[in-house]
Amino acid sequence: MKRWLTLCILTIAAGVAAVQTQARSVWDGVYTEEQAARGERVSAAQCARCHGQTLTGAEAAPGLVGDSFNANWEGVPLGDLFERIRVSMPLDSPGTLSRQQNADVIAYVLKLGKRPAGAVELPPDVAALGQITYLSNRP
């Protein structure tokens, strides 16, 4: 009886752990509208001068929305995008944005790309963002 009970508990625990670690994508409402609004303000001040006002690209930098962006980031964890922004942007002063500002900018990029908002903000944490995959199309 004890073995059976132990087996049941372990099975339930494994099921809960599997559900908690299920892969999420940018289509799962991984940012909030408020966070995207903050990201829009950061973008206007820091990103637009190179990427354009609507982040569709300019002479100095590629677009952060659209087919080219989607192709470059398809299937890539958001943690990779976060790190790319963190270490290389803005181009004239890399690494000057806070981790929160980086996450906010990603939220704004997701909003521009028509990904749905949710109830919880994107965390400013590369490991947590590594659990969220960028997908161009809704699964």
Tally of distinct domains: 1
CATH architecture name:
Orthogonal Bundle
What would you report as the Rg, rounded to the nearest angstrom? Answer: 18 Å
Following the backbone from N to C, one meets helices and strands in this order, namely HEHHHHHE
Structural class: mainly alpha
Number of strands: 2
Indicate the low-confidence ranges by residue numbers: 13-20
Largest sheet: 2 strands, parallel
Q: Write the CATH fold name.
A: Cytochrome Bc1 Complex, Chain D, domain 2
Morphology call: globular
Separation of termini? 43 Å
CATH superfamily: Cytochrome c-like domain
> Can you give the mean pLDDT?
90
Query: What's the CATH class, please?
Result: Mainly Alpha
How do the strands line up in the largest sheet?
1-2
Strand content: under 5%
In DSSP terms, counting alpha (H) and pi (I) runs of 4 or more, how many helices? Answer: 6
Describe the structure.
The protein has 139 residues and is mainly alpha-helical. The chain has one domain (24-133): Cytochrome c-like domain (Cytochrome Bc1 Complex, Chain D, domain 2, Orthogonal Bundle), CATH 1.10.760. The chain contains six helices and two strands. Strands 1-2 form a two-stranded parallel sheet. 28% of the residues are buried.
Outline the fold blueprint.
Layout: H1 2-20, E1 24-25, H2 33-51, H3 67-73, H4 78-88, H5 99-112, H6 126-129, E2 132-133
Parallel strand pairs: 1-2
Helix pairs in contact: 2-5, 4-5
